[in-house]
Amino acid sequence: MSKAAAQALKSEGNGFFKTKCFAEAIEKYTAAIEKDPTDVTFYSNRSACYAALDMWTEAAEDGRQCIITDKSFVKGYFRAALAQQNLGNLDAALDAVKRGLGIDSTSADLKRMSRELEESLRQRKVESFITQAEAHLDKGDVTSAYKTLDAGMRLDPNSKALNKIMETVRPKYERAEKHRLASLDPKERIKEEGDTHFKDAKFEAAIKAYTKCLDAISDKSSELAIKCYNNRAACHKQLSNFDDTIGDSTAVLEYKPDDVKALMRRAQAFEACERYKSSLQDVRQVIALGMDKVGKPTYDLANGMQHRLNKVIQQLKSG
């Protein structure tokens, strides 16, 4: 009886919705939910009414209720995403869209919204880069401003705003960089050459530069030597030279036992060489350092590796 009554209330709500009497429609859908909270369409329709009234917080909550009530109801993900988009919560909106596309990858509405959100997020990041660059310039930090703008232009090379600021910043940066390089110790200059080659994905040339720098350094525990070992290990990893990756990472860890980059790089190289126990030992050391020190992305990566390595080692034992 209550379900039939709820459907009757829904029909009344639909009538109000068609005539754009959204407040009255909301009352009917709310009454329908009170009689039958298991019908996902009640929440969906009420969310649409809230959206029509620009009541986006309420629309988002009903979108969320749609998903809770029926995870396979694709329109619920759209309702939630639309509301979050209008609330300015673009990441939450995109998350809802992706979850919905996981249910129905052909949804035209969700695919369109996914494109819109990706573009909005890209523009927001570009605006953030501009704000950061201007803040650096206000402090007279031309180098940080240049690097921020460079990162932004990799995201949107055609941005008029980024290019306009870069036209002012680039000459200043190039003068400062020329002066900085001229004042460097010869060994540091060689290391910088390696860094440039690495950024250009010229890994073999970078290895030669780092090796030349290391050959010129007598104190292999110095900060410069450790940077060269670390960077050369990164080059070897890019070229899948895993034994050399292990060697250079080990050289770093001899002087800096808690160097996170060296530990993770060596763990990945050990895994690639099927030295699973050694790899597991390194990732456990990273995890033991804690999320605050290593950062969430690295911590999560190490944790994932730990689960995978434990599984492989167990399979090898039982096989």
Question: What does it look like?
Answer:
- The chain is flat, with a radius of gyration of 28 Å.
- Helices cover about 85% and strands about 0% of the residues.
- The longest helix has about 30 residues, at about 110-140.
- Helix 12 (about 225-240) packs antiparallel against helix 13 and helix 15 (about 275-290) packs antiparallel against helix 17.
- It has about 325 residues and is mostly helical.
Strand content: under 5%
**Strand runs, count:** 0
- Shape field: flat
Mean pLDDT: 95
Please provide the ordered H/E string of secondary-structure elements. HHHHHHHHHHHHHHHHH
- Please state the oligomeric state of the protein chains shown: single chain
Q: Roughly how many Å is the radius of gyration?
A: 28 Å
Alpha-beta content class: mainly alpha
Q: Give the % helix.
A: over 70%
Our measurement of the CA-to-CA distance between the termini, rounded to an integer number of angstroms, reads 60 Å
> Helix count, per DSSP?
17
Low-confidence stretches: none
Largest sheet: none
